[in-house]
Design goal:
The protein is an all-alpha fold. It contains two helices and no strands. It has a domain of 29 residues. Pfam families: CcmD.
Length: 69
């Protein structure tokens, strides 16, 4: 079996478990992201906005004063 020696079944099993765990974590993260985006959209529809969005203001032009040379 691909030159893995007598422990081939253990090695392949370990890789399989790792891939299944990574897949499960990926699916859980994607599901949570969708849930959070849905909740945020519901709150924004109700008129509740994020604090970080309220802080965004157009950048004021800096006032530069020149001194005579």
């Amino acid at each position: 079996m691909l030159g893995l020696g007598p422990h081939a079944s253990f090695i392949i099993g370990a890789y399989a478990v790792a891939f299944v765990a990574l897949g499960a974590l990926t699916i859980a993260i994607i599901a949570d992201d969708r849930k959070q985006r849905r909740l945020l959209a519901d709150l924004e529809r109700q008129g509740i906005t994020r604090r970080s969005a309220a802080r965004r203001r157009p950048a004021a032009t800096p006032t530069v004063t020149r001194t005579a040379p």
